[in-house]
Design brief:
Two copies of one chain form a homodimer. The first copy, chain A, contains one helix and six strands; from the N terminus they run E-E-H-E-E-E-E. In chain A, strands 1-2-4-5-6-3 form a six-stranded antiparallel beta sheet, with helices on one face. Strand 3 of chain A pairs antiparallel with strand 3 of chain B, so a sheet runs across the interface.
Chain lengths: 152, 152
């Protein structure tokens, strides 16, 4: 993709998140983009991201991907909603107030995971993002992130 | 503590989880114990477990701790409920069907976190565990894990 990822617009001092901060060298460094009205992120689990069953991903990674992709989507969605250009104004900062994940099928560890977000609601400082996580076209988890905008 | 952790009873082939498997050398290797009617786990975040705000823990770690401690508690609770001794019979295996986390306050990264579980419901193969995560006596997150027992 030639788009710049949502996370690449974060100012350096807030680019530290283990899940999505581009400056956290130990972290997952996920990258989220617009794909039409939805947001999209691809992530290849590392071999040690196993769960209690060999060959499958542990639930905490899935929760982390849904959380960070959801919060990033909220941030970009608010910028878009307000007609604010992320090139000239960094995206608003959001934190997760609540996270819900339904694990609907085991997630294979050797596939590239696709995480998709869609904005369900923008209301004041609160944004709700619905997220799915799929492998090989099969939905393995469904989640919801309630993100709240931080004061500037 | 002189108790053996729930996770130390898991058979080797299922001790691979990034969150709680004792054999996952890259993982968090959390340890959960009974503390009366509740279960308890202590965890010291690593310096790189930061969120988007320096000095605070990222939400995915909190979700992971709640998930793995909740599933471990379900497993031990089912053994206790059935009067099955984990010394002679390894605990039942549970997977997380759903996870919910409310982030109620920022979680400081330089404290030992205390994660406590209490069983809300045991019904057939399903167990619901309520979990709190605290730092310095202050609750930073509240969660709920719905765990489902795997066939043996």
């Amino acid at each position: 993709m030639t788009q710049k990822a949502f996370q690449d617009y974060y100012p350096d001092e807030f680019a530290t998140c283990y899940g999505c901060g581009r400056l956290n060298q130990h972290g997952l460094q996920i990258k989220s983009y617009w794909d039409g009205e939805e947001s999209i992120c691809h992530f290849k689990p590392r071999p040690y991201h196993t769960g209690g069953f060999p060959g499958y991903v542990y639930g905490g990674l899935i929760a982390s991907l849904i959380d960070c992709h959801g919060a990033g989507t909220a941030s970009a969605a608010k910028s878009r909603h307000d007609g604010r250009d992320m090139e000239t104004h960094p995206p608003y900062r959001f934190v997760t107030a609540a996270l819900h994940v339904d694990y609907v099928a085991p997630t294979p560890i050797d596939e590239i995971l696709e995480i998709r977000g869609s904005v369900k609601e923008i209301k004041g400082r609160k944004i709700i993002v619905a997220v799915t996580l799929s492998a090989n076209g099969n939905v393995c988890a469904k989640g919801e992130v309630i993100a709240v905008q931080m004061p500037e």
